[in-house]
Write a structure and sequence with these properties.
Blueprint lengths: L3 E3 L6 E3 L3 E2 L12 H13 L4 E3 L8 H10 L8 E6 L1 E5 L15 E5 L3 H15 L6 E5 L3 H4 L3 H21 L5 E6 L2 H8 L6 E5 L13 H7 L3 E5 L6 H4 L9 E2 L2 E2 L2 H17 L3 H7 L7 E5 L5 H11 L5 H9 L14
Parallel strand pairs: 3-4, 4-5, 5-8, 8-9, 9-10, 10-11, 11-14
Antiparallel strand pairs: 1-2, 6-7, 12-13
Length: 340
């Protein structure tokens, strides 16, 4: 069984390893229908209690599959999160599927308004076929995502969207609210406008990059906002490494640059020296920071769940982390796991 950590000051306690269900939306490849339920069953069997999905993942397909799988369990046995910020509009001929091989005939449209958030929440409950959502994240707000339109959308999100999410929280319809983003800077920006219980931050506090340690993570500790760390492999490069023949290392959803490949190669050298699997180090590293309550990699099969659990439980010697620090591969003063 996994240890559980508290989300902010809420009554929610999540396992240190969670389940990311973007793969349930047929991300990059089709996923057999039975694989979804089998992977959730295996996760529950092995003690995971946190499941994350979103309307965007397969344009409703992931939410439907997650709901079908979790409906077999008592609601007290799992923590479910989904996201708001997009409305799925019927569109039978939608061609650009954004990487999802989904048959769902919908097109996602950004809507961070008060009404848009409320509609999205209600639609998610219907797609899930469940009576509760524990954590609600505002999805993909940020300047990297929206470019020149960020200021306009952010204003709508904070004035309207946050108000809706705060109302859902105060009415007990959700237990926690936050942002689900790839940019820690927008999380800090949002913290100036309201209180968020948690942030699902993808890829911005990992074995490969720790810039968020400078100001964002300390502020999370100060304001009792927890970090759920998504994308612990930085889009794959910390899972595959850079030396597998025929595998193109990916970082931030695209082929990695030479500079990133060189850094990961040095990390792999240390892994080889201490016989530590790179994915195990990537999964365990973020949890050493007290603001981080869990890591949630994407899981696509029962076998993948089992392998990931094994990596989370792999005993990594303290000297391994010291070697990374001495090689200048970790940010100065960064917390590292301690072998017990």
């Amino acid at each position: 069984m996994f240890k559980k950590r508290q989300i902010g000051k809420t009554k929610l306690h999540v396992t240190e390893l969670g389940f990311g269900a973007a793969t349930f939306g047929n991300l990059y490849r089709e996923m057999p229908e039975e694989a979804a339920s089998e992977s959730v069953d295996k996760a529950m069997e092995l003690g995971l209690n946190q499941f994350d999905t979103a309307p965007y993942y397969g344009f409703g397909l992931s939410e439907r599959r997650v709901g079908d799988a979790l409906r077999n369990y008592n609601q007290e046995d799992y923590i479910l999160s989904t996201k708001v910020g997009r409305i799925l509009e019927p569109c039978a001929k939608a061609e650009d599927k954004y990487g999802f091989c989904s048959p769902m005939p919908f097109e996602p449209k950004y809507d961070y308004s008060y009404d848009g958030i409320m509609r999205s929440f209600e639609h998610s409950l219907q797609r899930l076929g469940l009576s509760k959502i524990d954590i609600l994240y505002m999805h993909d707000i940020g300047s990297v995502t929206h470019g020149d339109d960020h200021d306009r959308l952010f204003k709508i999100a904070m004035e309207g969207g946050y108000k809706a999410m705060d109302e859902l929280r105060s009415q007990g319809l959700v237990s926690a609210i936050g942002l689900g983003v790839n940019e820690y800077q927008v999380c800090e920006q949002a913290m100036d406008h309201g209180h968020f219980d948690c942030f699902l931050l993808a890829g911005r506090y990992t074995l490969l990059e720790q810039q968020s340690l400078k100001s964002f993570l300390p502020r999370c500790l100060k304001e009792n906002s927890s970090i759920v760390l998504g994308g612990p492999y930085n889009s794959g490069i910390l899972a595959t490494g850079v030396r597998r023949e025929g595998v193109v290392p990916h970082y931030n959803y695209e082929p990695a640059s030479e500079s990133i490949i060189n850094i990961v190669a040095k990390i792999e050298d240390v892994c080889q020296e201490f016989n530590v699997p790179l994915p195990a180090a990537a999964l365990q590293f973020p949890l050493a920071h007290p603001a981080v309550v869990s890591v949630i990699p994407g899981l696509s099969s029962a076998n993948r769940v089992e392998t990931t659990v094994e990596q989370m439980k792999f005993d990594i010697p303290t000297d391994f982390w010291t070697a990374l620090q001495n090689a200048g591969l970790l940010y100065p003063g960064v917390p590292v796991p301690v072998m017990t």
